[in-house]
């Protein structure tokens, strides 16, 4: 048995390898795959197999996926390139006869206006046509995505956005990684599509309060219009494309695209998901130690 984890040098992939080891999977039966041999070296030091891969170079994938009883395809990070990259990985998995493929997708990927969803939806369609046994993990937002807001709030005492009263049912990456590990080693997950989220959907007022508690000072959320938000972001140095993406995402949140809190994640990992304040504090501690 070999379990392959792609994106192993990234946050979610690395945490999934850790979770597999914690569940007693022998290191020699895990293959950590990523782009950088240097960043894969710590896995090798722990006895984990490693493979240097590039989704844009299909010839690097066949050996990496050989003999895999299960493969975690962590979605790529390059927006606009992911469909072709994922297609290459799925085709290589099919050639290798991978026992089961687990893919990290987006919430309600095939039925949402979420700005990030189209590439995930297309990947899910490719998977459906691949003939492979598949499990889809539709991960909601990562709490760590807001860790950078802590420094902003420390300087200004406020968070600024156009999400209005929208809610986000986030969880920590470690929560999602534990779920991925459970699905990779567990039975009965073939064909499942899991909508994963934190147990609680919080507002941006809640986020401001959690950051304020962490900093030991008052932090408020200033809700602005999308147009004003775009102006603020470009004035801060973001290019128009990036600013437009951030504003579009806040619009999705305002309209409820990330608000659904389901019990599925906590059921898979056998514990409550990490609360917002704890997730932010742990992210800050990791950043300080890095």
Automatic annotation (TrEMBL):
Key words, A-Z: Oxidoreductase
Presence of the UniProt keyword Oxidoreductase in the record: yes
Assigned EC number: 1.6.5.2
GO molecular function, one term: NAD(P)H dehydrogenase (quinone) activity
Record keyword Oxidoreductase present: yes
Domain of life assignment: Bacteria
Pfam families per record: NAD_binding_10 (PF13460)
Residue ranges constituting the NAD(P)-binding domain according to the UniProt record: 7-184
Protein's name according to its UniProt entry: SDR family oxidoreductase
Natural source organism: Leifsonia sp. NPDC080035
